C-alpha cells in the first residue's frame, strides 16, 4: 500500500509515462493498471495466473487502451522494442535468478525507455524487521544491491506505509505474508492499523 503516493512520486521524478506505452509485469488483479491508464497512451498488463488475468481484465474492461495478457516475465508476450516504461512491483524481480526476465526487459523496452522494480528494503522500517524475521534465508541486502548495481540499476529508497481500515484487515494481510508462527509473534507485538514500510525502487534507463 502507498496511501501517500510516495512511490508514484518517486517514479515520476525519474520518468513520466504520460502519452507513452506502459508495461506492468506481474500485474496481478490489475490494481495499478487504471492509474497508469489515466495518462499513458496504452497500458499492457502481463500476469502468469489465469484467475488473476480474469480479474485484471474485469477491472479494466471499460478502458479500451488497456490490454491484459497471460504470460511470464522470462518470456514476455510482446514484440521487440514495444514499450516505454516497465513497472514490476513485488513480482519476479528479486535479485539473483531473475536474469532471464532482465534479458526480456532489454528486448522489449525501447531506446530512452525506463524500467522500475519495487522490492522490500529489509534494512529499515517496522516491516523491514518483520521481513528479516520471516525470510531469514534470502540473500543479504548487500548481495541484492550488488546484483542490481552491477547491471546498471539505481536504487532509490522510498518510505511508504500500510494503512488499514480495521485491525482485522491488517491481521489478514500479515497472515498472508508470513508463516503462522511469525505472524502470531508480529501481531502480538504490534498495535493499531498502520505499519511503516521501507521499499527499494530500482530503476534503469535504456
Characterize the structure shown:
The chain is an alpha/beta fold. The protein has one domain (6-125, 135-161, 199-205): 3-Layer(aba) Sandwich (Rossmann fold). 35% of the residues lie in helices and 28% in strands. The protein is built from 8 helices and 7 strands; from the N terminus they run αβαβαββαβααβααβ. A 7-stranded mixed β-sheet has the order 3-2-1-4-5-7-6, sandwiched between helices. Helix 7 (167-177) runs antiparallel to helix 8. It is globular, with a radius of gyration of 17 Å. It starts with 5 loop residues before the first helix and ends with a strand. The mean pLDDT is 95.
Pick out its properties.
alpha/beta, 35% helix, 8 helices, 7 strands, Rossmann fold, seven-stranded mixed β-sheet
Amino acid at each position: 500500500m502507498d496511501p501517500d503516493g510516495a512511490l508514484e512520486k518517486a517514479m515520476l521524478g525519474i520518468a513520466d509515462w504520460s502519452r507513452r506505452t506502459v508495461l506492468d509485469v506481474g500485474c496481478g488483479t490489475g490494481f495499478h493498471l487504471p492509474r497508469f491508464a489515466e495518462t499513458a497512451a496504452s497500458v499492457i498488463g502481463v500476469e502468469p495466473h489465469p484467475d488473476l488475468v480474469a480479474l485484471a481484465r474485469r477491472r479494466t474492461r471499460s478502458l479500451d487502451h488497456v490490454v491484459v495478457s497471460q504470460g511470464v516475465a522470462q518470456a514476455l508476450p510482446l514484440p521487440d522494442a514495444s514499450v516505454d516504461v516497465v513497472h514490476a512491483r513485488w513480482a519476479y524481480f528479486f535479485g539473483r535468478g531473475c536474469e532471464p526476465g532482465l534479458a526480456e526487459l532489454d528486448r522489449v523496452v525501447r531506446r530512452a525507455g525506463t524500467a522500475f522494480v519495487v522490492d522490500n528494503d529489509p534494512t529499515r522500517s517496522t516491516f523491514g524487521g518483520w521481513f528479516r524475521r520471516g525470510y531469514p534465508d534470502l540473500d543479504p541486502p548487500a548481495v541484492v544491491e550488488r546484483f542490481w548495481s552491477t547491471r546498471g540499476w539505481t536504487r532509490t529508497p522510498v518510505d511508504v506505509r500500510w494503512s488499514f481500515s480495521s485491525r482485522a484487515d491488517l491481521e489478514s494481510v500479515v497472515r498472508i505474508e508470513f508463516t503462522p508462527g511469525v505472524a502470531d509473534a508480529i501481531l502480538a507485538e504490534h498495535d493499531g492499523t498502520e505499519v511503516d514500510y521501507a521499499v527499494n525502487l530500482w530503476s534503469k534507463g535504456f
